[in-house]
Design a protein that fits this description.
alpha/beta; EC 2.2.1.2; transferase; globular; 345 residues; transaldolase activity; 54% helix; TIM Barrel; Transaldolase_2
């Protein structure tokens, strides 16, 4: 068993934070599944920008599409949605064997819709129908408008990956939106037991922002403390009606931004049952080489509480910091999407 596959013994799913035609057609994605028990895939505008820019197969197809579809966003979706479907098919056996709790492939609505609830919901419905796979997940950001769209999408029976969560307040809003959608769907007499959702909590960016404000002994500990507290709170969530699953916590942005830190720290320190960690290729390769799998997410409760108390004592408001990070993340995704559309324009 590989070091990556060993993580599954502790009940955590590892997803690959990457998707491209080359990844599928080369057999590399199938090897990640077979050799390392990778159980899903996430994507975002930056990932597809790099894929389209560097993959000759995409470039040739994009040139052909310029003769037809006039809208760059339509061209982009025509270009990549077949690969999203192929990835879904690769993961479908995992999805079926897990009774619908694993094997998901995430695709994001346009970042330009982040403050448009109706537009986000319309895009989620359209993408869900166009991908047309039971193990697809539509990514929606945890903005105020996004929360409204998330509740509506869940009520519609759409699997949702809620992205760009950076703080306890944002996470609580996401969990409330998910519960609202489930309860509305259940009240309408519709099945809720196969709906899946993840709440993607971004990890390394929090430490990158806070570390310069902290004494040396407090650096590199804030994101892990926040995530562990989120998991403790998640374990206390009340049951949902109709046999609905709880929305799983997903750790995102788990590559290490600070080269002084262990390169797999945000994988090793966040392993726990009924969670997901989506990891870029380079970090997965590092973990395959020297990562250590152990149940760490519930470890050292006093240390977690001490770090969070120290942040509060220093006047650091994690909710305010989270709003700052989310705004920066939205800007980053919006810029990546604009560059992406320029590639296919």
């Amino acid at each position: 068993m590989s070091r990556i596959a060993a993580i599954s013994r502790f009940g955590q799913q590892i997803w690959l934070d990457n998707l491209s035609r080359q990844l599928i057609e080369s057999g590399e994605l199938a090897r990640w599944i077979a050799d390392d028990a990778v159980a899903g895939v996430t994507s975002n505008p930056a990932i597809f920008y790099n894929a389209i820019r560097n993959d000759p197969a995409y470039q040739a197809a994009a040139a052909e599409l310029r003769q037809g579809a006039p809208d760059p966003e339509q061209r982009f979706e025509t270009l990549v949605l077949p690969d999203v479907r192929k990835a879904c098919e690769l993961f479908l056996p995992i999805h079926e064997q897990s009774a619908g709790s694993a094997g998901f492939v995430s695709f994001e609505v346009s970042p330009s819709l982040a403050d448009d609830a109706a537009g986000t919901l319309a895009a989620a419905r359209r993408l869900w129908a166009e991908i047309d796979r039971p193990n697809a997940m539509i990514k929606i950001p945890a903005t105020t408008a996004g929360l409204s769209a998330i509740a509506d999408a869940i009520a519609d029976g759409i699997n949702v990956n809620v992205t760009l969560i950076f703080s306890p307040r944002q996470l609580a809003g996401v969990q409330a939106a998910y519960r609202s959608g489930i309860e509305r769907r259940f009240a309408a007499g519709l099945p809720v037991d196969r709906i899946a959702s993840v709440a993607s909590v971004f990890i390394s960016r929090l430490d990158a922002l806070l570390d310069p404000r902290l004494p040396a002994e407090r650096q590199g500990r804030s994101a892990i403390a926040m995530a562990r507290q989120a998991y403790a709170d998640w374990q206390a969530l009340p049951a949902l009606p109709g046999g609905a699953r709880q929305q799983m916590l997903l750790w995102a942005s788990t590559s290490t931004k600070n080269p002084a830190y262990r390169d797999v720290v945000y994988v090793e320190q966040l392993i726990g049952a009924s969670t997901v960690n989506t990891v870029p290729d380079a970090t997965l390769l590092a973990f395959r080489d020297h990562g250590e799998a152990a149940a760490t997410l519930s470890a050292d409760a006093p240390g977690r509480q001490d770090q969070l108390a120290a942040l509060a004592a220093l006047g650091i408001d994690l909710d305010a910091v989270g709003d700052e990070l989310q705004a920066a993340g939205l800007k980053q995704f919006d810029e990546a999407f604009a560059k992406l559309l320029d590639l296919v324009r």
